[in-house]
Amino acid sequence: MIMPKSQGRRCLFHVPLAIDPRGAVGSRLRPLHMREGFQELGYQVDTIWGNAAERKRRFQTVKRRIESGIHYEFAYSETSTMPTLLTERHHLPANPFVDYAFFRVCHGNRIPLGLFYRDVYWQFDLYRRKLGWYKRLVTIPLYHLDLYAYRQSVDILFLPSLQMLKHVRHWPRTKAVHELPPGGVLFDKGSEGPGHPELRLLYVGAISPPIYDIDNLLEGVYKAVQADSKIQLTVCCPEADWHKPVSYT
After folding, report:
1. Which of 83, 103, 127, 135 could form an S-S bond across to 153 if both were Cys, CB 3.0 to 4.6 Å?
2. 193: how many CB neighbours lie within 10 A of its CB?
3. If we measure between CA atoms, which residue out of 179, 145, 180, 203 comes closest to residue 31?
């Protein structure tokens, strides 16, 4: 969908993380590209991200601007894979609730808030087996706290797949939900011609089982090749995963 360019408009961009431009993982790269996308559409983007102290300072600045009459057309937020209160390097809740306060300010000032909810691994047995019970006593209630805050203030929920909605408990039916697929930079290589009917697949992400297990993908491609299908798979993963010994059966 092509959106018209906006003139002199402002929006807010919130991520409860410190964003490193040199980051090599999607949760760090995606916000940078999303901000660039809003800027290319003509928006002035005020960001609320960084460590907890930085987010608090940026939030106070934005709050003063709103109180002075500056209009923000919308706010966009992305979640962490961790509970919001534990996103500091030491995983302790420094400046707790500043992110929730930002959501309430958006809601109270009728600034439409869209949120990209990254994943719900914490709801599955795999997460419980991987994490000790004493850690789960902390993390799982905090995940529920995040969901409660989202239900109260978020206007549009964005998910990697609409299939994920069944795991977002008690999401109000009156609130919009849209699929927002992973981002990427597209390059037009032109037509390959009729002599190259090869199916080309690209996998981007981690490959370390049990959470990131691409065994079925590799098996499917192998069987297709054995059946003389012209198929090519490219795997793009973190360097540490590539060098880690993994045995796929």
Report:
1. 103
2. 7
3. 180
